[in-house]
Amino acid sequence: MTSLVARPKINLRKYSSRIVQYAVLSLIVIVVFVPIVMLVFSALKTRGEAMTNPYTPPIPPRWDNYLNILRAPNFWTMLKNSLIVMAGTTTSVVLVCSLAAFVFARMKFRSKDLLFNILTLGLMFPINIAILPVYLLIRDLKLPDTLIGVMFVQTAFALSGNIMILRGFFLSIPMELEDASYIDGCTAFDFFWRILMPMARPALAAVAALTMIASWNDLLVPLVLINKETLWTLPLGTMQFQGQYGMDISLVNAFVSLSAVPTLLFYFFAERQIVAGMTAGAIKG
Prior knowledge:
globular, 76% helix, single chain
């Protein structure tokens, strides 16, 4: 005698969308992380191991490649130059963009929208197509072979997008708050500095993080403007290092992975602020 037990039906429609989401996310994770894992695996092997077994984990890990690079004085010089350029560019971008975004978001003057639209045209001209006139301008300013010249160019090409992000966040602040501050005796600058800037920390963190990552990874501007080896940044050093030790793929990968550590650390610490700032700018912009 067989017993008939009613089995619960599986609602495929309910789980199909979730399955597709996990499949897409898993594919993205694989595409993003596999090259990074392979880079680290290769850096922890000898040259022969990296050539014969490129896809296997390093057992045991060889730390000699990292130690040789950390003992080289050129690496620390390039790291210092990259830090100087990144800090100068980020400070300039945050300061200039916050002031400009405040003007376009809270001040009233004639042709404000027209000027803002002209400013956003900068998004349509990447540095790649403007590098020749940029070099001629920097040469006339007598700034080639200086870190200030690199910071100047990187700051100029980061203004349009970051002003848009900060303007969107500033527009989300209620006007009643500004009116109350004026009633209490604040000037426009007092409202900007004492009230608006503390409230805009997520957006400022997003702008700072995006600028830091772009400046740290920038190769084109230092390549065109810098000739002195003592002023090379890490991307330039990576290119030179690859040309000098191109056959030793493990050593090159160790250099590349060490160069990416500062930006990865900053992103992990500032991830929440970056997402909050970008979301606010996207909704209110």
